[in-house]
């Protein structure tokens, strides 16, 4: 769709750049021919006119015949007008006397003008249309009614949205986010954190206005998905801003993973724990990611699965 629009605009600009008119030999030929035609046409008209004059002068009886023809044409025209008056519901002035109703108020009299044919036709056709409409959309269900059409459109839009997110690689949400502690990802998250979150949670996550993010205690859950959800929707009642509008899903995933990575770092001036202790959740995942043994790697993947 998009590309079609782009293509057509490109074609349009191209067309606009071309010279509008070029006097090539062929164009010249066309112009000359046209001019010749006009001259010939005017000449033919002149000849016709002079021939007619000739006929009138030499054979006057022919002219009488023509006059009769014109009269019958006028008659037909009058018939047509009468028919049109009927359709349009027009009453010529001459016939007004006939349709005058014989009451009168203060010298004001009333005409009995019938509803015009076209209006009645329109009116009855709306009734027929309505019956057809009800049958098609509501009785037999051949077409989609408003609600079905709305739902179909929403479905289409949702599919398009998902396709777009898929294409832009940002369809991550609180249900699909996974622990990703790769250095670039966490570093990107830290950058976002220092810019947006440090003033409330402390630059090392030790907690200030907002709770300590480095301990094992969580008010809203310590799984990466929980953290993602808290950041995305916020806790507006408690002073935690929803970040949905200001951070992209990928950015939220980055900063959530940054928080996972700082759990258990014990920064100085840590704020006392708030919420419930989460037994070996995000903090474990953070610890395990750096560990090398088979066993812990396996545990990490189970931790990731449970967070999905
Ligand atoms: C205006 C201050 C403020 C800013 C800015 C802020 N937060 Fe918060 N945040 C809070 C408060 C207050 C809470 C506690 C909410 C509660 O008590 O339910 C909180 C809670 C949280 C929690 C949940 C903690 C738990 O124990 O469950 C997380 C995670 C969090 N914030 C992350 C962030 C991130 C990431 C950012 C930056 C993108 C951020 N916050 C920006 C004030 C803030």
TrEMBL record:
InterPro entries given in the database record: CcoP_N, CcoP_N_sf, Cyt_c-like_dom, Cyt_c-like_dom_sf, Cytochrome_c_Oxidase_Subunit
Pfam families in UniProt: Cytochrome_CBB3, FixP_N
Protein name: Cbb3-type cytochrome c oxidase N-terminal domain-containing protein
Organism ancestry: Bacteria, Pseudomonadati, Bacteroidota, Sphingobacteriia, Sphingobacteriales
Compositionally biased spans, kind Basic and acidic residues: 273-282
Ranges for region Disordered: 268-308
Domain Cytochrome c: 184-263
Stretches that traverse the bilayer: 26-48, 117-136
Low complexity bias spans: 299-308
Keywords assigned: Heme, Iron, Membrane, Metal-binding, Transmembrane, Transmembrane helix
